Automatic annotation (TrEMBL):
Locations listed in the record: Cell membrane
Domain PAS: 89-141
Protein's recorded name: Phosphate regulon sensor protein PhoR
Purpose: Member of the two-component regulatory system PhoR/PhoB involved in the phosphate regulon genes expression. PhoR may function as a membrane-associated protein kinase that phosphorylates PhoB in response to environmental signals.
Length: 435
């Protein structure tokens, strides 16, 4: 096509020049004839260009282009076809956008689109009821101005959103929301918000039930244990047949008491998100006492327990909670590794934060158990656990305490080679003493 037009144009130009030369020969004014001929051609081209310009600027959507002659006609038609194709494509895209907007508007979950800085770009109707966003006033506002809970701000700024965040609604504190953010495109955010009030209520009922049952069982158990103790204090008056039975009853009673204590502690940990206490805790001193208790627990089994702790590194939080988490890890190492085993406790800091590692060279744990280890009552080997007198709640307590201190638990272990339980705490929780 291009080639054709190239030839035709050349021919047309040659024809024009030939005609001008002929006219020049006849009139004896060759130069003038050429100038007039070429100027006429240029003027015609310019007038076509002006017509095109006028049509492009002023035409109505469906108005066809003016008739053009030769190459100009083809240029007009090509532009017109291109425009119509674009309009059709735009219409199709708009229909898709309309359908997506209609369906998301009908959703009961809130859908909110935020730009890379967290400013509101678009949201559906549910976002107005769940979060109280107002159309169109809030458009372009930062989301953190509208959802003011500090936990949301922290969650939003963290920029990795693997876990959803649960919050009371800013509009109605009895409504509980679950917020999940996904990043897409050019670091923009898609925020999904679900009403989880019902789930939250059920969860609360479960927690209350466990806490109440544990609490109610405590009193009768204390009475039974008290009588057993009195009976065992008068061993001479007992028939030897009963002695062993009573001793076992006392043992199981103590186990039940430990279970109830752990259940109540877990219920207490679950009741709030953060510890009420947030003082810097001297972890090195805490570990020293845990180390002594561990030596006592080991007793005749004579584990070799070593402790390395950075004395300048303190951790913000509740001393009682941290004590129960760390002692659970160290006592587990004593309980589960054979006599004479080596146990190393290490507390150190680096640019990522502070870390506590408890390493043992005990039997280790098979990889398939690791992800489930922090579940309540999960035991690798039920028969072995009953010998150790564990409640099965130790690591669940550790996990909860760490969550409340913004930390996380890392477990690495291989069968026959021992296990390492490491707690990682972010720098925000660490206080370093400067010398
Ligand atoms: P328990 O009260 O039974 O010790 P935990 O929640 O503390 O409950 O631990 C869960 C399970 O993890 C234990 O039953 C045990 O099988 C395993 N476990 C924990 N720590 C160790 C360890 N240091 N070495 C080997 N197994 C361990």
């Amino acid at each position: 096509m291009n080639q054709n037009w190239h030839g035709a144009l050349t021919r047309r130009l040659l024809l024009l020049v030939g005609a001008c030369l002929l006219l020049g020969l006849i009139t004896g004014q060759t130069a003038w004839a050429l100038v007039i001929g070429l100027a006429g051609y240029l003027a015609w081209n310019l007038s076509q260009l002006l017509r095109l310009h006028k049509w492009l600027r002023e035409h109505q959507p469906d108005e066809p282009p003016p008739d053009g002659y030769g190459l100009w006609g083809e240029v007009f038609d090509s532009i017109y076809n291109l425009q119509r194709r674009n309009e059709k494509a735009r219409g199709r895209l708009q229909a898709v956008i309309d359908r997506v907007q209609e369906s998301t508007a009908a959703l009961r979950d809130a859908v909110i689109m935020l730009d890379r800085d967290g400013n509101l770009e678009w949201w559906n109707r549910a976002a107005e009821t769940l979060l109280g966003l107002q159309t169109p006033q809030d458009s372009g506002q930062p989301i953190s101005n509208l959802v003011r809970d500090p936990r949301f701000k922290e969650y939003f700024e963290r920029e990795h959103y693997l876990e959803p965040l649960d919050l009371p609604s800013p509009v109605n504190s009895r409504v509980h929301l679950q917020i999940q953010i996904t990043q897409y495109g050019n670091n923009e955010h898609l925020m999904l918000v679900r009403d989880v009030t019902r789930l939250h209520q059920l969860e609360q009922m479960r927690k209350d039930f466990v806490a109440n049952v544990s609490h109610e069982l405590r009193t009768p158990l204390t009475v039974i244990s008290g009588y057993l103790e009195t009976l065992l204090d008068n061993v001479e008056a007992l028939s030897p047949r009963w002695l062993r039975a009573l001793q076992q009853m006392q043992q199981q009673g103590a186990r039940m008491q430990a279970l109830l204590n752990d259940l109540l502690l877990l219920a207490k940990l679950e009741a709030t998100d953060y510890p009420t206490d947030n003082q810097p805790v001297a972890v090195d001193l805490l570990l020293l006492t845990i180390n002594n208790d561990a030596q006592a627990l080991s007793g005749e089994r004579r584990h070799r327990i070593s402790l390395e702790a950075d004395q300048d590194l303190k951790l913000k939080g509740s001393e009682a909670e941290l004590r129960s988490a760390f002692s659970n890890l160290v006592f587990n190492a004593v309980k589960y590794s054979p006599g004479g085993g080596e146990i190393n406790i290490r507390w150190w800091g680096d640019e990522q934060g502070a870390h506590l590692a408890v390493r043992d060279n005990g039997p280790g744990i098979e990889a398939k158990h690791l992800p489930r280890l922090t579940e309540r009552f999960y035991r690798v080997d039920a028969s072995r656990a009953s010998n150790t007198g564990g409640t099965g709640l130790g690591l669940a307590i550790v996990k909860h305490v760490l969550l409340r201190h913004r930390g996380r638990l890392d477990i690495s272990s291989s069968l026959g080679k021992g296990s390492t339980f490491t707690c990682h705490f972010p720098t925000a929780q660490v206080v370093r003493r400067t010398k």
